[in-house]
Automatic annotation (TrEMBL), chain A:
Presence of the UniProt keyword Transmembrane in the record: yes
Name the UniProt record assigns to this protein: Tripartite tricarboxylate transporter TctB family protein
Keywords in alphabetical order: Membrane, Transmembrane, Transmembrane helix
Record has Membrane as a keyword: yes
Organism domain of life: Bacteria
Transmembrane segments: 20-35, 55-82, 103-120, 126-143, 150-168, 205-225
UniProtKB/TrEMBL annotation, chain B:
DUF112 domain ranges (all copies): 27-441
Protein name: Tripartite tricarboxylate transporter TctA family protein
Segments passing through the bilayer: 26-53, 65-83, 124-142, 176-195, 207-227, 357-380, 392-410, 473-491
Record keyword Ribosomal protein present: no
Keywords for the protein's UniProt record, in alphabetical order: Membrane, Transmembrane, Transmembrane helix
This protein's record includes keyword Transmembrane helix: yes
InterPro entries: DUF112_TM
Database matches in Pfam families: TctA
Length: 254, 503
């Protein structure tokens, strides 16, 4: 058996071990939703002013079929995994496929995206929040090896965490404390990146891209397509919007 | 003859209408350019290009212009994938994986410009072949599909999900089916279409209106790519292109039968529900290798091999639009994103679609392929420069594009949370080798399946024989059952034995 065949066999063994776990998760999901579906009426009943004719028009018929089929397929997958030796290796390092470096990379990206979507987008000026995201991702994953993402994760975590904890209620989202905090962290991270980042064209372009793209996008969305945009009361966007409607638009409207 | 004349006249009107509108060129040039850029950058795909533009243009400009932007990006991205395949030996999109087999050896022989010129011409002719097929077959099928009722619609939706699950799965076919079932399950969330009974909302009012398509598309196609692509990679050495990028007319004339055959194969594969351009490219390449007199040269820098894959993957676009427009079933993952654009514009593709939309789609495809051809020949150096942009710089920008695109479609912050959740699940599914396309197709077709399945039962008083009593439905039941049984080990062994006997 040559090296390529050995690698393929190892990858397949790992996949079958992972299939064991995924089959168990799917079985649990299917059972949970079958139980949840049993709460929907399956016989003839009246609801929302409509009388159902019988079991065959029930809202539960198709979901029962879907989750029943999911359960069957998950059991088949479990069987395939067990027969291929996946269950035996499921708890081993091979089965779990644990790679600390890869896990920390995915964890860092996951945390950054979570802080951005849950913490920054609703509460912080979109231009500042997105600039921090772009800077953090380029800074953490372009040309840095090992633990390069620690500082960017901390910056995003601090900005997102502060916004989330200091302004949890929607009524507080218009306040600017988190905007200033994000701006401070953006400047700090940019300076750190400029000093420690890989010396290439991307390094010089990062601040331009980080501020330019969100600025362009939000202006195009808000004034070009007239669409809803996140956090209109943000530190920078509120000024842009005021200037546009009070000073610029009247110029061509009149 | 009268039918053909009517078709040509309708197309001519739609084309003239498009050509005289200056906005056409604004949307077309920018979207084809953007599409080629997305295709050329390894890590970004045609599906992602169409998905992101769906978020931007889906419901913000009239559908007529949105279609120009989305189809332009689709055509551009499938073609753009050939650049890194040829110059870096890294397929820009899955669709151009087969292109690398002969494109890169040609570039190493110093014939990179010739290879790029040929792929441009092959892609152009391929798109036109697919578009002509679309113009002809869509009407024939529309006439047939007038007889399609609820049982056939339900079974077709099921067939689309099963087929895409079977063909898109890298590992076991049941993983594709499981992905399709997860998509169907997601489509069950919200008010049911017959009795308006709330399902699986867990008290969250946002879910009452069901799972929105655009955040699912963004989450399923964009987020996993962003997570996967953000790693430090040394990009391979790019081969310098010397000389002018021009079509080699002698080679085109010589390989015209190959181009025609690849165009037909690409269109046919594209017309299969849920099967995309990558399959078309490989099938055409495989057929070309086995029937060509130069088959032994495939993989060593064969011009014929290059034309086989590039013509087929672009011809697949027209093919993929046939089931989308006729039946409302996307023929490929980017077509699923297009379906999302139709959905948010309240246009229901299928037998009741406005014929003007079909003619406009055909006219846009023709104009988009011309634009792609001109750009490919005259601005290729720009795209070669773009190849040098590392994905670690480009993907953060894609994340911001995805966020604002998803936010502005309608659901606001809730759509973003949904996108992130679907993205996390899709990334895990990718890791475990579950295909994502069947999930998205399941979400898109789930509502149709639920409604038509129950309507059939309602009209037949719960008699399940309604699914086999009509000839069309009986054929579809047979196909669905055959598709499932064909994956059983016993059936596979029997097929292998039969093949062994015939060889």
């Amino acid at each position: 058996m040559d090296r390529l065949e050995k690698d393929e066999a190892l990858a397949l063994a790992q996949l079958r071990a992972r299939d064991f776990w995924s089959a168990l998760v799917l079985i649990a999901i299917a059972l949970f939703f079958l139980w949840k579906t049993s709460g929907l009426s399956l016989g003839a009943h009246s609801g929302a002013g409509v009388s159902s004719a019988g079991w065959y028009t029930s809202a539960a018929v198709v979901p029962f079929g879907i989750f029943g089929a999911l359960l069957v397929l998950a059991l088949v997958l479990l069987g395939i995994s067990i027969r291929s030796g996946g269950a035996a290796q499921a708890m081993s390092g091979l089965g779990l496929g644990w790679n600390p470096q890869e896990a920390s990379r995915i964890g860092a990206i996951g945390l950054i995206l979570l802080c951005y979507i849950v913490g920054l987008v609703p509460r912080v000026d979109f231009i500042l929040g997105s600039a921090l995201l772009i800077t953090a991702l380029i800074c953490g994953f372009h040309g840095r090896a090992g633990r390069g993402a620690t500082v960017p994760v901390l910056a995003l975590g601090l900005a997102g965490g502060f916004a989330l904890l200091a302004y949890p209620q929607q009524s507080d989202w218009a306040q600017s404390g988190d905007d200033w905090m994000t701006l401070g962290l953006l400047i700090s991270l940019t300076v750190w990146h400029q000093y420690t980042g890989a010396r290439d064209r991307a390094l010089r372009l990062t601040p331009v891209l980080a501020l330019g793209l969100p600025l362009l996008l939000i202006c195009a969305m808000a004034f070009g397509f007239r669409q809803n945009v996140p956090n209109r009361s943000g530190l920078i966007f509120s000024k842009i919007e005021y200037t546009y409607y009070v000073h610029l638009r009247p110029l061509w409207r009149s | 003859m009268e039918f053909l004349f009517g078709q040509m006249l309708g197309f001519a009107w739609a084309f003239a209408d498009l050509v005289i509108d200056p906005w056409t060129y604004v949307y077309l040039i920018s979207s084809v350019f953007l599409g080629i850029v997305f295709g050329a950058l390894p890590g970004l795909t045609a599906t992602l290009a169409v998905t992101i533009l769906t978020g931007f243009f889906g419901n913000k400009i009239p559908l007529d212009y949105a279609l120009i932007a989305l189809l332009g990006a689709y055509v551009g991205a499938i073609y753009g994938g050939s650049y890194p395949s040829i110059l870096l030996n890294i397929p820009g999109t899955a669709a151009s994986a087969a292109t690398a087999m002969d494109g890169h050896p040609l570039a190493k022989q110093g014939r990179g410009a010739e290879a790029l010129g040929l792929t441009t011409t092959g892609s152009f002719i391929g798109t036109l072949v697919g578009t002509v097929a679309l113009l002809i077959f869509v009407w024939v099928l529309l006439l047939i599909s007038k007889n399609i009722a609820s049982p056939e619609k339900a079974l077709l939706a099921l067939f689309g999900i099963l087929l895409s699950g079977t063909l898109m799965s890298e590992d076991l076919a049941i993983k594709g089916w499981i992905a399709g079932l997860i998509g169907l399950a997601l489509a069950m969330v919200g008010m049911d279409p017959i009795l308006s009974e709330a399902r699986y909302t867990f008290g969250w009012s946002y879910l009452l209106s069901g799972i929105a398509v655009v955040p699912v598309l963004m989450g399923a196609f964009a987020v996993p790519q962003i997570i996967e692509g953000l790693r430090h990679l040394e990009v391979g050495k790019m081969i310098e292109v010397t000389g002018r990028i021009l079509p080699n007319m002698a080679a085109i004339r010589r390989y015209l039968p190959t181009i025609g055959r690849s165009g037909v194969i690409g269109t046919g594969v594209g017309a299969l529900p849920g099967v995309g351009e990558d399959v078309a490219g490989w099938v055409s390449y495989g057929v070309g290798k086995s029937v060509s007199a130069e088959g032994d040269k495939f993989g060593k820098g064969s011009l014929e091999g290059l034309l086989c894959s590039e013509t087929a993957n672009n011809a697949c676009i027209g093919g993929a639009l046939i089931p989308l427009l006729v039946l409302g079933i996307p023929g490929s993952p980017p077509a699923a994103a297009l379906m999302g654009a139709f959905k948010i514009n309240n246009v229901i593709p299928g037998p009741t679609i406005d014929p003007a939309i079909i003619l406009r789609v055909v006219a846009i495809m023709v104009l988009a392929s011309f634009t792609m051809f001109v750009m490919g020949l005259f601005t290729a150096r720009v795209f070669i420069k773009i190849l040098r942009v590392p994905q670690t710089v480009f993907l953060p920008l894609v994340m911001v594009l995805t966020t604002i695109g998803s936010f502005s479609v309608g659901g606001g912050l809730n759509d973003l949370y949904l996108m992130l959740g679907v993205g996390a699940v899709a990334y895990l599914m990718n890791l475990l080798k579950y295909p994502i396309a069947p999930l998205v197709i399941g979400v898109i077709l789930g509502g149709l399946f639920d409604e038509t399945f129950r309507r059939t039962l309602l009209l037949s008083d719960g008699d399940l024989l309604a699914f086999v009593s009509r000839p069309g439905a009986a054929i579809l039941v047979t196909l669905n059952v055959a598709l499932i049984l064909g994956q059983l080990p016993i059936a596979k062994r029997a097929l292998t034995r039969m093949k062994g006997r015939t060889v």
